């Protein structure tokens, strides 16, 4: 019934249906809806069912993720069982040598029994760091990624099996290469150059670190765990064979530590990040510490603190004007000067230990050591 002019107007149909129809008309313009006849207990049960479903789904998903993590951890344990007992003692021993070399200087030293030809021709391991990064094992491992072959390795070591780095199977990433090969800057798969760079061993050891394990445990999705699984497969396929070769073939370990220049770092060239702090040190006159050890006996064969001060003498009319190229050449010349002084120091010790009547031309003493003025080095390697 509806009132009109004070009188009730009769509406056809059931009153309850008429009332519901009127309420829908009022709710429609405001975007509201009303469910009639739904008790509060219904919504409570809906909430309970949804919560139960969420708990069950979470437990199933968590169980699946834990199963995936366990599979990856099993692979990691297999690598640790194969590689750990061999490379971990090797890493700890070399890190101890590097930290001692970075400590208080004990003076130059060359063992009387040193064999320069064997050191320069035999497989070895090389590591170069700033001295501030050689104070602890943690900083050594972090900074090892910047250790590269440079003018020192070119002027000190002799590669008996040199290969053209531009020839070989094409690659775009390390995974494209066969085990034991690296994808170099020419996008070619080649064997790692000798001396082996210590950073290759650290790259294989990365997946055995507690930091890598903690990151795996924190992964909260299938995609994240898959990424760690693929990382482990890549290390197993590429890095582990190289690390094993380093352990089985290397005879000597050589470390070069760059001291900070006396007058501070020079201004960086180019845009921000174009030249690292290590590169700025190496292109500036500074002192470098060099250590050579026998990996089989653990004996230190040489210890030298020398001035890295190479001089580039232009040949012909062509003069390098590009600052980046000139800085790179100066880095190589300075590093080469360190290598030449180490060679000279070893040769002088060998000549001193040789019998007086051995004959042959006399060996010149080292060009510079422990702060003495260094001679010029013509050209860059």
Number of E strands: 10
**Lateral strand order in the biggest sheet:** 3-10-9-8-4-7
Mean pLDDT: 81
Cα-based radius of gyration, to the nearest Å: 35 Å
Q: Stretches where pLDDT falls below 50 for ≥5 residues?
A: 365-381
Shape: elongated
Fold topology:
Blueprint lengths: L1 E3 L2 E3 L5 H13 L12 H63 L6 E2 L5 H6 L2 E7 L6 H7 L7 H6 L25 E2 L5 E2 L5 E2 H8 L4 H9 L3 H28 L2 E7 L18 H6 L3 E9 L5 E9 L14 H31 L28
Parallel strand pairs: 4-7, 4-8
Antiparallel strand pairs: 1-2, 3-10, 5-6, 8-9, 9-10
Helix pairs in contact: 2-8, 6-8
Can you give a write-up of this model?
The protein has ten helices and ten strands. It is an alpha+beta fold and 381 residues long. The protein has a domain of 189 residues. α6 packs antiparallel against α8. The chain starts with a strand and ends in a 28-residue tail after the last helix. The relative contact order is 0.12.
Q: Summary?
A:
The protein has 381 residues and is α+β, with helices and mostly antiparallel strands. The protein contains 10 helices and 10 strands.
Notable characteristics:
6-stranded mixed beta sheet, alpha+beta, 12% strand, 381 residues, disordered C terminus, elongated
């Amino acid at each position: 019934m509806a009132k009109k002019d004070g009188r009730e107007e009769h509406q056809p149909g059931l009153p309850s249906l008429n009332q519901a129809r009127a309420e829908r008309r009022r709710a429609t313009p405001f975007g509201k809806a009303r469910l009639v006849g739904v008790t509060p207990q219904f919504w409570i049960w809906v909430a309970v069912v949804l919560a139960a479903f969420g708990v069950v789904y979470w437990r199933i998903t968590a169980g699946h993720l834990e199963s995936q993590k366990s599979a990856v951890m099993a692979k990691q344990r297999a690598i640790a069982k194969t590689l750990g007992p061999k490379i971990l003692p090797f890493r700890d021993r070399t890190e101890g040598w590097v930290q001692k070399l970075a400590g208080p200087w004990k003076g130059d030293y060359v063992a009387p029994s040193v064999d320069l030809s064997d050191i320069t021709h035999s497989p070895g391991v090389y590591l170069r760091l700033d001295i501030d990064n050689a104070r602890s094992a943690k900083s050594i491992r972090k900074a090892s990624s910047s250790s590269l072959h440079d003018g020192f390795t070119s002027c000190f070591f002799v590669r008996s099996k040199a290969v053209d780095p531009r020839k070989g199977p094409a690659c775009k990433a390390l995974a494209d290469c066969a085990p034991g090969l690296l994808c170099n800057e020419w996008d070619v798969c080649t064997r790692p150059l000798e001396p082996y760079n210590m950073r290759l061993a650290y790259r294989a050891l990365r997946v055995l670190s507690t930091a890598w394990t903690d990151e795996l445990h924190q992964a909260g999705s299938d995609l994240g765990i898959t990424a760690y699984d693929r990382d482990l497969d890549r290390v197993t396929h590429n890095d582990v064979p190289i690390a094993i070769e380093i352990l089985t073939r290397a005879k000597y370990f050589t470390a070069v530590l760059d001291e900070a220049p006396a007058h501070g770092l020079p201004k960086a060239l180019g845009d921000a990040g174009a030249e690292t702090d290590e590169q700025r040190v190496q292109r500036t006159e500074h002192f470098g510490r060099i250590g050579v050890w026998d990996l089989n006996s653990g004996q230190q064969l040489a210890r030298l603190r020398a001035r890295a001060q190479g001089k580039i003498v232009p040949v012909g009319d062509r003069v390098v004007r590009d600052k980046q190229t000139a800085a790179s050449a100066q880095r190589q010349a300075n590093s080469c000067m360190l290598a030449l002084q180490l060679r000279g120091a070893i040769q002088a010790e060998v000549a001193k230990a040789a019998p007086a009547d051995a004959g042959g031309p006399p060996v010149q003493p080292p060009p510079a050591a422990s702060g003495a003025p260094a001679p010029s080095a013509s050209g860059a390697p």
